Amino acid sequence: MDLERYLSEKSELVNRTLERLLPEPEGYAKNLAGAMRYSVFAGGKRIRPAMVLASTEACGGKVEDAIMAACAFECIHTYSLIHDDLPAMDNDDIRRGKPTCHKAFGEAVAILAGDALLTLAFEAAADSPGVKMERLLKVVAELARAAGYAGMIGGQVMDMESEGVDVAFPVLESIHIHKTGALITSAVRCGAIIAGAKKGELEKLTGYGEAVGLSFQIADDILNVEGREEKLGKPVRSDKRREKAAYPALVGVVESKRLAEELLRKSLCAIEGFDEKAEPLRAIARFIVERRN
Ligand code: GRG
Questions:
Q1: N or C terminus: which one in the chain shows less Cβ crowding within 10 Å?
Q2: Measured CA angle at 118 (ends 113, 119), to 5 deg
Q3: What atom in ligand 1 is closest to the CA of residue 234?
Q4: What pLDDT digit, counting tens, does each position of 136-171 carry?
Q5: b/e per residue 72-97 (b: at least 16 CB within 10 A)
Q6: Rounded Cα–Cα distance for residues 248 and 228 (Å)
Q7: Which protein residue has the closest C-alpha to ligand 1 atom 24?
Q8: Is the whole model's pTM more than 0.90, yes or no?
């Protein structure tokens, strides 16, 4: 299948929907709206929304039913990047190839833009006409869990606390599973829930999401060592500088690549029983370990 075309079509749809969803930078709190739009439209691969949509399609659902949830994931992801770049966190100047939100709008507005994107995500996810109420409730609960203490935020705190510390492999794995994997797994699960996936299908897709989610962060760690700033739109070699817990530092680049390949096989195996409607999910799993940005 032509993944490039698939991702580009889905990105266009997601961007058009985000355009309508985000507040206009005029009148009331226009600087805040400007900061939200600045970070959301600074670039980005839109891989999480694509996974929501691909998962819905794999389960026989309709893209239009899942588009608001897909945008919710992008809002949460962008909020996490804004906050991750703040002086109190990674203190980065460049993100998605542009000055970070706090560099462009100041720290206070950047914090609030992140907060507003996080809350907008729930407003969007709950507003999916045509989707059964009990499915939407499950999606909102999934999203909250994946973004919060039990997922991304918990992982971020473990990550911060591991800086400059020699962490053991299971600790590093747990950081990546929570910080990055939880949101990706949840994107896959939410797409499936919206489509009304059966328990067995949801379990298989959860296995797929967990493997892909972990492989995403391993690939990100490898790109931090081998990638180029112009292509990534963010600083490279920063993990080493900050003594962050990362796969290449702990097990080496070669072993990191082997582990990412092993997770790719695991993810493909988890959805073996799905028909050709799951091809985009298969192609996304491959793209994630082979990507250069
Ligand atoms: C609440 C103060 C406060 C901070 C939260 C939650 C958080 C900070 C940070 C999340 C952790 C994080 C940024 C993990 C990294 C995940 C990752 C690899 C991001 C890059 O994702 P891509 O490559 O980026 O999909 P694009 O720009 O393509 O969307």
A1: N
A2: 100
A3: 27
A4: 999 999 999 999 999 999 999 999 999 999 899 999
A5: bbbbbbbbbbbbbbbeeebebeebbe
A6: 16
A7: 44
A8: yes
